[in-house]
Structures are given as C-alpha cells and as structure tokens.
Amino acid sequence: MAGGFLMEIRRGTQSALLVIRASAEDPGTPVEVSVSADSLEVRSSGSCAPAALPAGVRLAPSSCRGLRRLPGDGLHLRVRLRRPPPPADLAFTLRESLKPHKKYVFYCQSCGDIIVKDRKFLRVLPLPSENWNDLVEEWCCHPNPFARSTLRPQHDDCFLGDTFFMLNSGNESHVPESLTCCSETGHHASQSGFNLKSKENTRVICKRCKKMLGETISSDTIKYYVTEVIIQPSEGSFSPIPRSQFVQSMVAQCLLELSSAKSTFRFTVKGDNGKTYILIWLLNSDTLLVESLGSSSSLSVLTLFGDIFMPSSGPVGTWNAVKVLYQPCIKCRNKDFADAWENDMGVHPLKFPSETCLELLLMLGLSTASLPPSLRCMNSFQVAFLKM
C-alpha cells in the first residue's frame, strides 16, 4: 500500500474515519478499495496492496458511506465497526502506581540514573487543585484559616499534584549523589545554601544528564514533575521508555484524569518560568488510531521523534490516543487568546519544565504534520493526537 492509510476509530460511537493516502508518485492514479471485516485492499496501476487490521478491530463493510476524494489527501470514507474495539490498555496513572507500604525506585527518565532508591511511603495523598487557596474566601465567612499554613509532606509522605509529586527530602533513602541543584550559570550549591527566592537556584537537575527533574519547595521538600521521572517497584528493573512516548503518555493521562475529575477540557501548558507555551482543548478521549505509513517514498514528515510516530509492530501500527486542539503561544503568538484563557475559570493550568513544554509543542506539531492536510485544522485551532 504505497500511500498507506490512517483510521481514526471512536470507541464511544463504534465508528471510524478511514483515509487512504494518495500515492506520492502519481496522486491522480485511479484507485480501487476493497473493505472486508478484518483487512483493507487497495488496487492501483495493476498492483494490489492488502493490509490486515489489528486483532479486535472488525469493520462492517456494508456500512461504508461518504466516499470522496480530496486533493492532497486521498480517499475518505466512514465505516461502522461490527463490535466495540478492545478497551484501552493504558499504563497505570501516578495515583494508581504509587501505593503505601511498598518500596519504589525513582529514575531519571532521560538517562536512567537513580534519583531516589528503595523509598517506602506510609501515606500517598492527593493535593487539592493548584488554585484552591484563591477560592477560600468564597467558601469561608471569616478570614482565611489557612493563610499561615502550608501543605508539606512529612517523613515518609508523598503528595500528588496534577503534574508533579512532592517528597520530603530529609529521608535516608534519598540519594543526594544523583541530584544537584544549580543556577542557570551552572554554579553548584549545597541544599542548606539555597536561595529559595531565586527561581534559578530551585531547579533540581539530574547530575548525569543535566535534565531538569523538579524544584525545591523548601529546605526539606522537593517537587518532581511526572514527565521527568520513572517510578518502578524496588523488586523490578529499569525499562527505558522513549522520550516522546513517555511525555505524550503522561500529558495525555493528566488531561484524562482532570477532564474526568473536574469536567474541564481546556488547559494552559505553562513552564516553570511562568510563561504560557500552549493552549490545549481536549476533543476526544476514546480514540484508537490505526496507521500504515506505506512505502518510505510516501513519507514527507520529518519524524524527529520517530519512535512514537512510526508503527512499532510490522506494517500497521495501533495506538490508544487522545485527540486535542491546540494553539502555540511562544513568541507572543495568540497572546489575546492566551490572555482570555488565563482569566477563564473553566481553564485549568498544567505546569511542566519549560524545556518539556517546548518538546511537547514540537511533538504536537509533528503529529499535525503527519495528518492528511484536510484534517490538520479545526476552526482556528490545529489538530493533533497524543499517543499512549
């Protein structure tokens, strides 16, 4: 199948949009498409290219409708599924993966260096939302009772936020050799000598690869971002995960958890420097992507993060995904739009390291570029998939 195909399956509606990509060599060549329950077959210029669908995906050929050919895209058609596809087999969320009274090892996601070794928590507690303190005056008829108190983890506590987890660093299981905090100029400082009012001196970085892992909140509290650290049981072994796959999966999980718990679907992605990098609107959370890239000559997208955009199991790749609309906000782009979202109580902020925000923006851009041209935009937003 020289041009390949893209199938966007919705579990909720048991329907799929199928796009047979046009051949790059001769986009005007007549094409004959045969759809069966478990395979697709494309005939063009005397050649025949069959493609088997993943196990569990069964189409209803008689339901095909809306066939049309779009220049630059190829053939579009819609088809229903005979039965629901397999449920999403998602990785455990942070709240599910961390359990009290079990030992865990924390690794730097980028290089695999051990950050915290054999740490056992007696309590694993979720934190309230980032802006909970701003709403106290609306709840209480007397002065804010929490004005002078702060939420800090005690010995053997782990606090979970929307995009981070917070640990008490004054524990014997902490491995200080794996962490160092430094300023932007690279000067090292001991933990007791941090100037916590200076943002550049609160960054926690991996000593081996210099990747930012989190921030120091106080002299005995460290906040790690979920996109920078892999947590595994002590009895297990470290299994490296490609960077793009890990970041997309963790961000997608954050979007799913927050949309389910708080019924919010719009998010601002902010860096640790306080700048807004991306506006994200969660569109669909029940998507199953099936994709065949066809021959290498048909590829026109530079896959810098190719480990996630290339099928990993044979000619056809399958991913659980969330579909998002997004707007980049770097270099003052979409400033009015971003300001309006900042003042909207229905928009939820997500904070990550600034470098990770730029990585995420690049991944979204590559996802958009990999889609057929007619599917890349919706109203004033760009369309992308975060694969899990």
UniProtKB/TrEMBL annotation:
<dbReference type="GO" id="GO:0005634">
    <property type="term" value="C:nucleus"/>
</dbReference>
<dbReference type="GO" id="GO:0043161">
    <property type="term" value="P:proteasome-mediated ubiquitin-dependent protein catabolic process"/>
</dbReference>
<dbReference type="GO" id="GO:0051865">
    <property type="term" value="P:protein autoubiquitination"/>
</dbReference>
<dbReference type="GO" id="GO:0061630">
    <property type="term" value="F:ubiquitin protein ligase activity"/>
</dbReference>
<dbReference type="GO" id="GO:0030332">
    <property type="term" value="F:cyclin binding"/>
</dbReference>
<dbReference type="GO" id="GO:0031624">
    <property type="term" value="F:ubiquitin conjugating enzyme binding"/>
</dbReference>
<comment type="subunit">
    <text>Interacts with UBE2C/UbcH10 (E2 ubiquitin-conjugating enzyme). In vitro, interacts with cyclin-B.</text>
</comment>
<dbReference type="Pfam" id="PF09814">
    <property type="entry name" value="HECT_2"/>
</dbReference>
<dbReference type="InterPro" id="IPR019193">
    <property type="entry name" value="UBQ-conj_enz_E2-bd_prot"/>
</dbReference>
<dbReference type="GO" id="GO:0000151">
    <property type="term" value="C:ubiquitin ligase complex"/>
</dbReference>
<dbReference type="GO" id="GO:0000209">
    <property type="term" value="P:protein polyubiquitination"/>
</dbReference>
<dbReference type="GO" id="GO:0005829">
    <property type="term" value="C:cytosol"/>
</dbReference>
<comment type="function">
    <text>E3 ubiquitin-protein ligase which accepts ubiquitin from specific E2 ubiquitin-conjugating enzymes, and transfers it to substrates, generally promoting their degradation by the proteasome. Independently of its E3 ubiquitin-protein ligase activity, acts as an inhibitor of CPSF3 endonuclease activity by blocking CPSF3 active site.</text>
</comment>
<dbReference type="GO" id="GO:0006513">
    <property type="term" value="P:protein monoubiquitination"/>
</dbReference>
<protein>
    <recommendedName>
        <fullName>E3 ubiquitin-protein ligase E3D</fullName>
        <ecNumber>2.3.2.26</ecNumber>
    </recommendedName>
</protein>
